Every structure is written in structure tokens, then in C-alpha cells.
């Protein structure tokens, strides 16, 4: 079945290409449209950035290879191939961790239910490496968290939550999820319980879930996981929680219902018991309307008759097309969540519970004495308002990276790696609390500028500069790094993401003067080979990769400049 044409209205050719290539096996109509788009003018850095952002790079690479790889600039095809290879390597590493963890918990007779990750890859795609995922997710009962934590710590994982959260039980401060990290393999794990899965209006019924578990065999190991119907409902709840802002989540639903037989009556029953019927219908409607997944006529008609499902789907479409607010505030978010609920009354109750139930982020934002811990119910709405605003005016979205401060020893090494010297002007894109900018000014005596979209980070950076007495040498700009003027910079530092680097690539290349250096921590700029690369493990165990580029004369900056692609028998310049 073809994609609904309304999804293509107003789309850039880059986004339309991503949309057409987001399935494991596009139909012939989509495949022909892919070939037509490849013959046209494309901004290839935009194509690849969108594929990274929506976690569909492996699909794009495979479908471009099938549709006509001769129409793709080689450096971009190689970038996609490399990204797909990296995703495959991470998937196999996480699979090995999954098998090891499963063996430990099975031996200890502690039920830990794997979902998403390798399990979903196998169920939905019949392939362990085609789907992009970066961590392992498990579900277990809250009462087993202390025991599960001890078992994972014995397996080399570090708990990323405090003692209070570990002992939360049926009450007390539970986090948004129980996160673990293993330094040796860089593997991340998230444990979810009936208390952390707060986007379900009703707690999970583990007795019913255990009754419906199915067995999946992967790499010779049999594991129990959620039924197809439970998995489907959980995927739709997860996607709606995140406003379906990643195309891969819709693809997961589309591929699962295509690859596996679904007991539709049972799926609707499970959703109804969890008060999430509309959430399920929304996910199915998106999979059908956006990616052409087949649905039973009765299910499709039920979704189409629901005006809220259509309204919600339209909001997702506007978001994908870039026609909606880039960073919705508290009120638009609340309206979306409320309209996704089955009934207004219970929906309001659930909305209030989400707004007033503190997570670890709320407790980290304000440290209260134990005696005042009940006041965290007031801290949470205050933090949400501070982070998202009311939504009465358009706000810039922090879409380049999450806030993850760079350790000071890594900051020092980045500046050395960049060859900072007197007379340089440094710009740190996504400066956070300003530590790179402040260090550059303090140690090298240079002028430095920090750019961040978050006003809270800018305030922290300015306070940091005052503490170190370098206010006269530094500036902090609350702006979008994608539009700020960087032409005076001789050094640019970044710790963003792969798709963020691609979004900045053209501006870095066109605005910086010859001789300017760019240093990125942990993420390369695909399609632009670095001049230097270095990987280090610091004494505290932090593993860091550094990439260095030096701006050359315009004619030699980009291996894809001047690359010709065939279009209707003519030659056109690469639109990157």
C-alpha cells in the first residue's frame, strides 16, 4: 500500500526521500518515487542528517543501494554505509550483553522481561542489525529492583541512580527509569517497572502479562518476552509519550504488524484495560497513513472515525513537515496528552499525576532536605514550565544535543588538541555551563564565545565566568547554533551529535576562514574526513574520541563539491 499523499504535501525532497525509504521493503510506488527523487537536486547533508535524527540510516542505505546507488554521491553513500555498519556493531554488542544478562537472571530465577532492542529487531524485522537502537530495555516488578541492581552490579554495571530510588518500593522517589552503564563495553541498560512506566494511566498487571508471555529464540537462547499484542500497545504508548517525533518508532509499529500475526481483538482489549485505546489507534493510524502498513478494515475505520486520532495524527504530520512549533510548551503538550486519552475525566487525572509526580531530574534540579521531600511535587511543574515555557510563543528547540557536561580533563585536552594559542577566537557551540569557554579565556587569555539555546545554561555559564574573573574576555549568546554568526572564530569546539554536526557542516565550511580549526568530541562530521583523530581513556575511565578539521581553501574543503548527479539525462551539481 502506498503512503497517503497528504504526508508528502509541503515536504522538502530530503524529508520525502527519508519518508519513502523508512520501510524495510518499500512498495513499488515508493521505490519509484525514491528513484525520481534521486534524479533531482538534493541537499545530501540534509538527507543524511534527517536519516540519523530519525534513526533510519540503515533503511536509507539499503533502499538507496537497491534504487540506484550510482545516483548517490559516493561520499554520502559511504557515510550511510559506515553509519549502518556502526549500528550493526552496536546491535551485536548489545545482543551479547542481553544474552549474558538473561543467563544471570535466569540462573537466579528473577524474571526480567526484555523488550524493544534485539527482541523487537527479531520480531519486527527478522534481522538483529537492521534496526537502530542504543540501549537495552527490560521490565520487571518494582519490588525486584534491589535484587536486580545487585545482579547487574555483579555483572559489571554501574547504577546511575541513588540509594533512595533503589529502595523506593511501592512508595518513595522512583526515577523515570533505572539506568545502568558498563564502562568496559559502553553498554547502557534501562529497567522499567510499574512505577516508572508512568505514561500508562493504569499500572501494568504483571499477572496478566506473565500469562501472555511468548518465547523467542535468538542465537540459540530462548527468552520470554511480551506477547505481540502487549508489545504493540507498549510501542504505541512509548511513541505517544515522545509525540512520535522519531520516524523509526512509527516504522517499528508498521513492521511489527506486517511481520507478525496480531490477535486484534486481544490487542484492543489490552489497550482498553490500560485505558490506552486511542493511543493504540493513533500508532496504528500513523503506521498505515505514513508508511502504508495494512490494517484490518474494522481497526482502520475505528481509527478514522475518531476525530481525536485524526487531530493527533495531523499534529505529528505537521511536526514531521516542520510546520509546527519546534519546541511545544507546557500547554500544547498537555493538550496533546489529554486528547490522546480515552476519556476526559481519567485523562485529566492522569495529566495531573504526570505533572506532579517527581522524577530524578526534578530532584537533581533542586536539592531539598529529606524533611522537605514532599515539596518536590511543586518542583516538578516549576521545572517543566522553566524548561518548556507555557507555549504561548514560539521557542527554539534544543535539537542539537542533550546537556551532558564535558569533564574538565577532557576540556583541557580538547583545547590542546585544537592547538589554541594567543590571538585565537574560540566559539563553543552548545556551550552548556561554559566550562570550555571559561577555560580557554583563563588559561590562554583569548576571547571566547559560548552559544547555547537554553537560557538556564547561559545563566550558569555567565555565573561560571564571574567566578573565574574572565567576564571581560568571554561572551555568551542565547541563540541557535544553526544560525549564529561564527565568521570571526579561529577555533570551534563542539560536543553535539552526528546529525547535529551534519546540520552545522555547511555553515562551518562556508563561514569560517582558511586556517580555522574545528574540534568535535565523540562525533565525526560525516562526509568530511578529519585531519586528525585521537582516542583516549582518561584516568577516571572516561573514553573520549576527538576529531579535528582545518578549513582549507574553498576548492578543497569538500570531497563532494562539484560532484555531478544524473537528472533526466542532464548533469547537475550536488545540492549539498
Task: Offer a few descriptive terms.
alpha/beta, 47% helix, globular, five-stranded mixed sheet, 23 helices, Beta Polymerase, domain 2, 13% strand, 576 residues, Rossmann fold
Helical content band: 40-55%
Output the radius of gyration: 24 Å
Count of alpha/pi helices: 23
Q: State the total count of DSSP E strands.
A: 16
Ranges where pLDDT stays below 50 over 5 or more residues in a row are 556-576
**What name does the CATH topology of the domain at 1-234 carry?**
Beta Polymerase, domain 2
Shape: globular
- Quickly name the level 1 CATH class of the domain at 1-234: Alpha Beta
Major sheet? 7 strands, mixed
CATH architecture of the domain at 1-234: 2-Layer Sandwich
Set out the fold topology.
Elements: H1 13-20, H2 28-38, H3 44-53, H4 57-68, H5 74-107, E1 113-115, H6 117-125, E2 136-139, H7 145-154, E3 158-159, H8 163-166, E4 178-182, E5 187-192, H9 206-212, E6 214-218, E7 221-225, H10 228-241, H11 247-259, H12 264-273, H13 277-291, H14 297-305, H15 307-321, H16 330-339, H17 344-356, H18 360-365, H19 376-388, H20 408-417, E8 425-429, H21 435-444, E9 447-452, H22 455-468, E10 474-478, E11 491-494, H23 498-511, E12 517-521, E13 532-537, E14 543-550, E15 564-567, E16 570-573
Parallel strand pairs: 2-5, 8-9, 8-11, 9-10, 11-12
Antiparallel strand pairs: 1-2, 3-4, 4-5, 6-7, 12-14, 13-14, 15-16
Helix pairs in contact: 1-2, 1-3, 2-4, 3-5, 3-23, 4-5, 6-11, 10-11, 10-12, 10-13, 11-13, 12-13, 13-14, 13-15, 16-17, 20-21
Amino acid at each position: 500500500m502506498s503512503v497517503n499523499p497528504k504526508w508528502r504535501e509541503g515536504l522538502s525532497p530530503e524529508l520525502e526521500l527519508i519518508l519513502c525509504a523508512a520501510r524495510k521493503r518499500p512498495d513499488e510506488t515508493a521505490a519509484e518515487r525514491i528513484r525520481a527523487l534521486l534524479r533531482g537536486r538534493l541537499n545530501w547533508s540534509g538527507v543524511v542528517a534527517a536519516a540519523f535524527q530519525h534513526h533510519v540510516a540503515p533503511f536509507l542505505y539499503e533502499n538507496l543501494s537497491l534504487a540506484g546507488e550510482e545516483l548517490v554521491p559516493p561520499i554520502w553513500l559511504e557515510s550511510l554505509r559506515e553509519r549502518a555498519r556502526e549500528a550493526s556493531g552496536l546491535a551485536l554488542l548489545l545482543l551479547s550483553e542481553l544474552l549474558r544478562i538473561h543467563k544471570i537472571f535466569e540462573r537466579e530465577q528473577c524474571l526480567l522481561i526484555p523488550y524493544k532492542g534485539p527482541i523487537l529487531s527479531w520480531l519486527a524485522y527478522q534481522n538483529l542489525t537492521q534496526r537502530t537502537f542504543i540501549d537495552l530495555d527490560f521490565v520487571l516488578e518494582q519490588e525486584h529492583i534491589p535484587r536486580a541492581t545487585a545482579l547487574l552490579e555483579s555483572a559489571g554495571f554501574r547504577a546511575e541512580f541513588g540509594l533512595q530510588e533503589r529502595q523506593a518500593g511501592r512508595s518513595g522517589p522512583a526515577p523515570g527509569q533505572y539506568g545502568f552503564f558498563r564502562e568496559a563495553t559502553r553498554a547502557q541498560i534501562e529497567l522499567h517497572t510499574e512505577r516508572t512506566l508512568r505514561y500508562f494511566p493504569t499500572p501494568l498487571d504483571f499477572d496478566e502479562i506473565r500469562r501472555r508471555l511468548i518465547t523467542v529464540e535468538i542465537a540459540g537462547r530462548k527468552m520470554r518476552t511480551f506477547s505481540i499484542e502487549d508489545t504493540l500497545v507498549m510501542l504505541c504508548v512509548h511513541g505517544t509519550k515522545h509525540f512520535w517525533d522519531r520516524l523509526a518508532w512509527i516504522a517499528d509499529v508498521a513492521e511489527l504488524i506486517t511481520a507478525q500475526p496480531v490477535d486484534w481483538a486481544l490487542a484492543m482489549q489490552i489497550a482498553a484495560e490500560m485505558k490506552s485505546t486511542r493511543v493504540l489507534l493513533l500508532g496504528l493510524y500513523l503506521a498505515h497513513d505514513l508508511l502504508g502498513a495494512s490494517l484490518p478494515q474494522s481497526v482502520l475505520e475505528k481509527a478514522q472515525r475518531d476525530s481525536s486520532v485524526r487531530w493527533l495524527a495531523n499534529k505529528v504530520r505537521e511536526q514531521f513537515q516542520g510546520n509546527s512549533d519546534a519546541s511545544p510548551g507546557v500547554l500544547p503538550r498537555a493538550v496533546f496528552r489529554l486528547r490522546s486519552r480515552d476519556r476526559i475525566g481519567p485523562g485529566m487525572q492522569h495529566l495531573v499525576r504526570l505533572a506532579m509526580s517527581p522524577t530524578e531530574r526534578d530532584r537533581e534540579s533542586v536539592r531539598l532536605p529529606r524533611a522537605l521531600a514532599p515539596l518536590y511535587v511543586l518542583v516538578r511543574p516549576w521545572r517543566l514550565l522553566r524548561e518548556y515555557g507555557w507555549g504561548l510563543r514560539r521557542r527554539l528547540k534544543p535539537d542539537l544535543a542533550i546537556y551532558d557536561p564535558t569533564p574538565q580533563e577532557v576540556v583541557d585536552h580538547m583545547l590542546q588538541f585544537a592547538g589554541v594559542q594567543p590571538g585565537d577566537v574560540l566559539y563553543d557551540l552548545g556551550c552548556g555551563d561554559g566550562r570550555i569557554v571559561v577555560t580557554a579565556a583563563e588559561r590562554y587569555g583569548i576571547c571566547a564565545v559560548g552559544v547555547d539555546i537554553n537560557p538556564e545554561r547561559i545563566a550558569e555559564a555567565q555565573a561560571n565566568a564571574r567566578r573565574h574573573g574572565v567576564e571581560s574576555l568571554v561572551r555568551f549568546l542565547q541563540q541557535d547554533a544553526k544560525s549564529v554568526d561564527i565568521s570571526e572564530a579561529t577555533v570551534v569546539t563542539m560536543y553535539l551529535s552526528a546529525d547535529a554536526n551534519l546540520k552545522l557542516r555547511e555553515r562551518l565550511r562556508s563561514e569560517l576562514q582558511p586556517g580555522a580549526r574545528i574540534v568535535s568530541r565523540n562525533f565525526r562530521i560525516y562526509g568530511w574526513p578529519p585531519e586528525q583523530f585521537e582516542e583516549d581513556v582518561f584516568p577516571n575511565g572516561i573514553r573520549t574520541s576527538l576529531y579535528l578539521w582545518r578549513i582549507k581553501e574553498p576548492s578543497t574543503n569538500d570531497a563532494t563539491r562539484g560532484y555531478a548527479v544524473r537528472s533526466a539525462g542532464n548533469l547537475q551539481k550536488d545540492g549539498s
